[in-house]
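## tool: complex_structure
## caller: assistant
## args:
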Amino acid sequence: MAPTPDPSRRSAASRRAVLDAALELVQEVPYARLSIEGIAARARVGKQTIYRWWPSKAAILLDAFLALSEGDDGQAPVLPDTGDLVADLRLVLRATVAELTDPRLDAPMRALAAEAVHDATVAELYRDRLDGPLRDAKRQRLRSAQEAGQLAADVDLDVAVDLVWGPVLSRWLHRSGPLTEEFADQVLDAALDGLRARPGR
Amino acid sequence: MAPTPDPSRRSAASRRAVLDAALELVQEVPYARLSIEGIAARARVGKQTIYRWWPSKAAILLDAFLALSEGDDGQAPVLPDTGDLVADLRLVLRATVAELTDPRLDAPMRALAAEAVHDATVAELYRDRLDGPLRDAKRQRLRSAQEAGQLAADVDLDVAVDLVWGPVLSRWLHRSGPLTEEFADQVLDAALDGLRARPGR
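## result:
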């Protein structure tokens, strides 16, 4: 018996084809020249199919990026919490560096970050879908450390998140120096212990 | 006697008109639609005049931004060094926040930052003309503190610069929270003293 066509499977395949096409194209053309038409043609789907699922090329790119970077399971991200704050954060910050320097992820992330800088709609999408959930997970891990007495009680957790991840993001964005595991480790040590000279250190 | 026309004065006036036109236009149209033609028309100068002085619209914007933010005296930036590290850095970091939240500066800075994210030529211009000299000044101020025994001897000064300024830049870029003097002060305190709980604190 011939297999019956399964519309939901076909639709998952088209969705996948659109995400792949967007990822390919964003590495080939500048973001300004990336178009829904171009993505549709590359994915061999109709433009209307794309518009049914995504409001904009930034939304496609964000989905493509999420699918690549963390799997497409729709789960909210959670940071490891073994009780060893330094080991957990070191792992995560090194993983951030690995993602930011992964050539497959670099182009879509730069395109999204650049769009988010001056397009408030993209910034909102970026915040709601990507940065917001990640930020919650980071804050949650730091809160757990604060409750365990490992972080100072008067530290604002949003400041703490920015202190640990901000230097890595700004070095990536400005290409202001090498983005390495060593840099990640140095940032983490400096953020936890501070820059100030202290006796016995 | 009628004044003799002064070509160098006329040329300074045209230059100023181009910078003003670029600043006006970047607040009115998206960066992608900002054009040399549009700037020339608004400034009432010929396109060739612009091309004689600037290689690209990003270069115009960078000059406009530099002229606005720090005067056009061509001097390399220097950070205050009164010997009081906290007071000096607080002043400078608050000034950074004031610039980043100044509505006249916000549009050209976002346009430049976004372009620099995915255009390596603009990134280089940005680094050479704006970020590089500022970074040198920051590193110099921190080196002076390190030599005075105020910063830990083993701190990498590039890491230190990123730890103090990175959180402010990344909050501005991602609009991930309020960018206030209070935030600047909190970042500075956290960067100097670290996030870790310590006895007697």
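## assistant note: The mean pLDDT of chain B is 88. The two ends of chain B are 75 Å apart (CA to CA). Handing back to user.
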